Amino acid sequence: MSLLVNAESNDRHLSKGIHWMSRNKRVVAAAAVAFLAVGASACGGKKDNSSAGGGKGAVIVGTIDSVSSLDPAGAYDYGSWEVIDSVYQKVMHFPTGGTTPEPDAAKSCAFTDPKTYACTLQPGLVFSNGDKLTAASVKFSFDRMVGIAAPNGPSSLLGSLESTEAKGTDQVVFHLKQADSTFPSVLATDAGAIVDEKTFPKDKLLDGSKIVGSGPYTLDKYTAKQQASFLASKTYKGPAKLNNGQFVLQYFSEASALKQAVKDGTVNAAFRTLSPTDTADLKKTSGIQVLDGTGTEKRYLVFDAKVKPADQKAVRQAVAQVIDREGIAKDAYDGTVAPLYSMVGNGIQGHTEAFKDKYGTPDKAKAAAILKAAGITAPVDLAYAWTPSHYGAAAADEATAIKRQLEATGLFKVKLSSTEWQQYQKDEKSDTYASYMIGWFPDLPDADNDVSPFLSKQPFLGTGYDNKQVQDLLVKEQGTDDPKVRDQAFADIQKIVADDAPIIPLWQGKQTVVIRDGVTGADKALDPTMFRFYELGTK
Questions:
Q1: Is residue 185 part of a domain?
Q2: What predicted TM-score, i.e. pTM, was given to this entire model?
Q3: Do 490 and 358 sit in the same domain of this protein?
Q4: How many domains would you assign to the chain?
Q5: pLDDT tens string 471-492
Q6: What is the 3-state secondary structure (H, E, C) of 63-108?
Q7: How far apart, in whole angstroms, are the C-alpha atoms of residue 168 and residue 134?
Q8: Distance between the two ends of the chain, CA-based, in angstroms?
Q9: Which sequence ranges are marked TM in the entry (predicted)?
Q10: Which domain range does residue 111 map to?
Q11: How far apart are alpha carbons 397 and 331 in whole angstroms?
Q12: C-alpha distances in angstroms, 119 versus 110, 171, 311?
């Protein structure tokens, strides 16, 4: 399962328990100024953690993200995971710049058979309050995550987990319901965050902000919708090397206020999310740098094969034949996104250019031939839906660009409709829309996470698409960790999807961070799996 994300909202996922957050329209830049004084006095404190070092002052990062929960069992949005990823440790983690999970709290992990994953923990692990972190802590954390199954939490990521077993103080064995080659990567997400069994209630979410973890930072101060201050943990024992002793997340309700804060120096970095126009303006501002990195956000045009005329393969193929991805990227997003020609993201192992291989460049004549061969008379009436309250202002430009491109061929007449996000979620699963807009932000840097949520026997989207060959290929790649077998399965899946065109990939986003002069490490912090605050420092 994976995550939905967009420029204006904080949700990360489309799957079980899609959620969203309303925004407080109060601008909090003034609070950030006051908080700078706190950060400046605290940043010179002791750094008992041998991994902590680097910066001479606190790094103040502005964002329009917000936090839904500080408890890992209740959080499945990017803003919350920014906090959780900094405070809690996991059995496995993704190293900076890496997409292959490596041990974190674990010393080593391995499959002993396709349905059993065994780990040995590092010796001497402790939580920030001094409590010991043992195999029992890990078992408690996973049993709790699955048991609570919070609607807005990430427990659905653990769908293949049957049970967790603790052997002694340092041995943890994960028993799976079926073979799942992605399980090590799941452990590296914040669904695998380890909590203190003496602090967290077993069967409900923790109230308040006094959270305890074993990660690189402790949450020193937290005021909802205003700021969160993090101090390097004195007890952390893990692979991350901290380049600062403190960082602060300053929350803004609007991108315009965040932009101004960067200009004023209220914050010395900004991440998630400025508009393309704001970013272009900041690039021209003295003393400010704008850095881009590979992102994982994707946008798809989705068909519901149970709704006319999307029930006809030829209609879907004709749309795929004339869609101009470069035009959408330029007209709607000022070149801040990159064309995407497969459901599997750019830069992900197993990615192919399946749609480019199948359809080449946009071609009206080829699309007309596809419709004619199927006995379909043009123009085809096609409804396309999008939501104005979820994907940001540019979504309207994107929907308009799609309509303009299709109608310019003379082969389609497109009727646009927009619906608020809450209703939109219900409608896209109830065969209401012939075609519609969906964004996707995967949890895992694994090709399976880009395809199985859409194409499995029980997909999370209302596509009406059911292909047994694809489903068999999913089972095949999930049942092995042999990269050659998996790559071939993904190549076959992408080829089938390009031919059937139940979903048309449009673009993949970029990550952008804006920094003022004096901030270091931002290039490394821009990691596709999660922003690495510990890489930031100040001169």
A1: yes
A2: 0.79
A3: yes
A4: 3
A5: 999 999 999 989 999 999 999 9
A6: ECCCCCCCCHHHCCEHHHHHHHHHHCCECEECCCCCCCCEECCEEE
A7: 9
A8: 40
A9: none
A10: 92-192
A11: 7
A12: 7, 6, 47
